[in-house]
């Protein structure tokens, strides 16, 4: 066996430990929120910031993390991020107030940005074009496996032990990841030694944070809120200013923009990134609705909800297996379109759920969704990353992750609105006092609580039926996103095999223009 080749795969295992630490933290937090509310006597606003504070810092730090890795060393950034992640997790566990906990979440946001971006850049640096789809498949699995494992492990710990353990479990994972990265991951950086583009860092970070915050608020206040529209507008304007500044800086002799816009001259990179974002939009339908369905309609706890998400991971593993060979045989275009078609079929089946649907039906369509996700994620990510050189691995990966991460809050805002309006329109609250009716309209959990409080089987049946209708509408919208992804793939994604992609960026000069 080639020792160097073996070392690369050990290095990938080290990187995936870092990815798993971040992914587990995100899923565990959702399980722990009710307990944290009591532990800190937290307000609804506090609870929102437990999640939002992390998301905003994560969005703001993506591109700067890539730049710092390219300039000073990607291994250094990953090791620093792992150490910071362990410190942030300890701080979460030992927080004495909501304010301290929010500050700890902000630390985790900085750490998470470095880990997520450097994990993607490591795939570019460590693996050749031929090996990269397999490595990306392992990366995808590490991302997805936390979806069921987090709630299962977190729910078990919360039931049996002190709540702080759901954050302390991150510490040994981070330490093990630190040791593994230090031992197996080689140091790499850009030979161009990019300068720190402060205007670019400020405009991109503030713009992405504003857009993320606006989309989070849309999910709470609706699209008609003046505050959300102003925040979104400010964010979009700042991103447009960022793009304009990058264009100007790229044309200056010796100019070093934060993001080489020449990367987007490549259809493979551009549409690979766009399609990963569309995939995120489509998946949010499942991730947003199904835990509510399992816990609100079926009456399971968080641990049981995690167990019921396992078919998605099983399907994902099935979809990952043929992705590399299929991408090389029929090309990225057809493989991604096929993946989106399978994903859309699964989501459309899920949209046919009724109150009489059994768990076998749910397992079937969720497995199909997982298969489509595996095919799409690996191939679209490979199409994008094949265009990144080692020089641009950090910032290019940051751009991919920054755009991808806007998909989650955008999808939650769109699908949350669709679910809520469909749920409320099908609720039968005739004769119910206004205070109870208002509580029932808030969510399925509010409706179930009111029905149990009034001991009303009729109201309980109405609440569950209304939620299933709302869930079906949200999944149908998600299937629509998958259809859009399939069409975009067929129209715009290059059709060449993954290993035969033209690395067009290598033909360009450092200023991002054609060198011809």
Structure description:
The chain has 3 domains: 1-192, Growth Hormone, Chain: A (Up-down Bundle), CATH 1.20.1250; 198-257; 262-406 and 474-500, MFS general substrate transporter like domains (Growth Hormone, Chain: A), CATH 1.20.1250. It is mainly α. Mean pLDDT is 83; it is low at 500-516. The longest helix is centred in the N-terminal third of the chain and has 37 residues, at 3-39. The protein has helices at residues 3-39, 44-72, 74-93, 98-126, 132-160, 165-168, 170-184, 198-221, 226-251, 267-297, 302-307, 310-330, 332-350, 359-385, 393-425, 434-442, 444-454, 457-492.
Proportion of strand residues:
under 5%
Given this structure, which CATH class of the largest domain is correct? Answer: Mainly Alpha
The helix/strand series, from N terminus to C terminus, equals HHHHHHHHHHHHHHHHHH
Please, what is the average pLDDT?
A: 83
Number of domains: 3
Q: Major beta sheet, specifics?
A: none
Class based on secondary structure composition and strand pairing: mainly alpha
Radius of gyration: 23 Å
The stretches of 5 or more residues where confidence is low (pLDDT under 50) are: 500-516
Task: For the record, give the distance between the C-alpha atoms at the N and C termini, rounded to a whole number.
Answer: 42 Å
The tally of beta strands, per DSSP, is 0
Helix count, DSSP H or I runs of 4 or more residues: 18
Helix content range of the residues, please? over 70%
